[in-house]
Amino acid sequence: MNDLYLIYKNMTRKPLRLFLTCFAIFIAFLIYGAVTTLKSAMDSGIDLAADNRLMVVNRINFTVPLPIAYFRKVAAMDGVKNVTHANWFGGYYQDPKKQLVVMAVDPESYLRVYPEVVVDPQQKQAWLRDRQGMLVGEKLAKLYGWKIGDKIPVSSNIFSHKDGGHTWDFVIDGIFTGNTEQYDTGYMVFHYKYFQETQTFGGDNIGWLVLTTEDPSLNEQVAKKIDETFANSAFETDTSTEKAFSKAFIEQVGNIGLIIFGVVFMAFFTILVVVGNTMALAVRERTGEIAVLKTLGFSSPRIFKMVLGESLLIALIGGLAGLGAAHLLIEGAKAAMAQFLPNLVMGGDIVAQAVGFMLLLGLVTGLLPAFNALRLNIVTAFNRGGA
Amino acid sequence: MSEEVLFQLKGVSKSFVKGKEEISIFDDLDMTINRGEFLAIMGPSGSGKTTLLNMLGGVDQPTGGEIWFNGERIDRFKESQLTRWRAHNIGFIFQFYNLMPMLNAARNVELPLLLTNLSKAQRRANVETALTLVGLNDRAKHMPSEMSGGQQQRVAIARAIVSDPQLILCDEPTGDLDRKTADEILEMLQLLNQDHGKTIVMVTHDPAAASYAKKTVHLDKGKFVQREVAA
């Protein structure tokens, strides 16, 4: 027997109370783990964005198109290194529920602007030559079991085909990977010209422009120049860095950071009150026993550590179980969300942060009862009928 | 035969403030307890018996006077020193046993040994010896809730003697027991005093319990009013 055994026996003396306390903490860390992992996955696009890449979208909002003529005009501007354009296709495969990230792009310039896209030179040449060709990300190809040469029908929930219907037939000419593991390869691209020729509406419009500057220090200057050039036209632009664009895109649904802070804060505050109250009650019930331990010769600091250890242990048991459940939840949802949130992984930083919060929760909830136990006067405790 | 002094109280006083009034429990109390003595302290409720016992056990401090134990003045000890001193020198037996409800008999007896440097095996051996002495070795794995009052008090006695203290302090050790069980417990205390040389100080209301002691003192209104030595 040692102090840890005493902590364990004290902790487990009322199993239902222990279960309910741990369950409350479990829920808090389940929410924390799942929500922060979700935010981290959303932010990963921001983290991976290139420093010198700018996005040009319609000033009204990014779903409103821009004229194709802007492509040449922007390409001619000082400080612009490469420029490409893209259109959102709104694709799905066979079933509208199987949504795909599909974009119509200008192939050559696209690959120049996105050096992260790594594709075998032969496959690249095949794709550049094949107007009906498709370049598919490795993750997407694996998900559907596609391989080079496969003919796949991709439908659009926005556009309709000249031949009737909403489905386009493509041939997979290449499968690309990313230059880093984090790069999302859960999308596919095809020729803008093929899109332009076969669609029934949309004309010569593009969705947005993406450009790289000669140097990140030129970003602001180039962005300002682009927006000034198209000011007071029918298609005014809004140019921002890719990082800022990704952040703004994510925050369309609201300030994710604030939402997460709100949810986590409320969960933690509630748990703090519940666990703090439970700990205080548990220690108060043991006033007599603490007085007996002190009488036997257990020092006050030792009892302080035992009470604090108990609350830390409860916080860690509930918290780690909650975090484990969040991990399982994330792993379960990973496949289904792979296309939208490719980096849905509970990273070490989230785990470390959560463990930090568990320790903090244990300390905060245990400090007052531990301090009361530290100060407990033996005679007063016995006179109170505590023993 | 010269008797060795274990405890000495010199002019001890104890008072506390209640509202604006200062209430005195003792004033200028002198007392000597010799090694190997079995002393019963009797007196009516509120006479200060338990307060005196608490001071002997170092769980309460006098407001005046001196308390000497084995040549050391313990009333000047800091709390941490008193805690260590208690762990090494005193065994406590309470009226309501005060066993830890979540620990079995053996674990309860082992508690004071956690304050020593004994190995696990040594601790186990000491626990076994103490439980055998109180006749409860076969109940080592029983929880307090599974034992009678008398058995629980015997476990408490085993806990009090397991670390081999010089002095055992008992606060109404039979107050919660029937006569027959009380006699068994008192015989056990007598055995510890006579055969194992333990010095015992027992607070009791019960004259029958006090009759087991070698010496009885009567406390009333903070003064010793009568001293009796057993024949």
Question: Beta-sheet strand percentage of chain B?
Answer: 25-35%
Largest interface: A-B, 22 and 27 residues
Largest sheet of chain A: 11 strands, mixed
Number of strands of chain A: 13
Structural class of chain A: alpha+beta
Radius of gyration of chain A: 30 Å
Sum up the overall morphology of chain A in one term: elongated
Fourth-level CATH superfamily of chain B:
P-loop containing nucleotide triphosphate hydrolases
Question: For the largest beta sheet of chain B, what order do the strands appear in spatially?
Answer: 6-7-8-3-9-10
The overall number of domains of chain A is 2
Helical segment tally of chain B?
Answer: 7
Overall pLDDT metric of chain A: 86
Q: Average pLDDT value of chain B? A: 86
What is the CATH architecture descriptor of chain B?
3-Layer(aba) Sandwich
* Number of separate structural domains of chain B: 1
Distance between the termini of chain A: 23 Å
Number of extended strands of chain B: 10
CATH class division of chain B: Alpha Beta
Annotation field: number of helices of chain A: 14
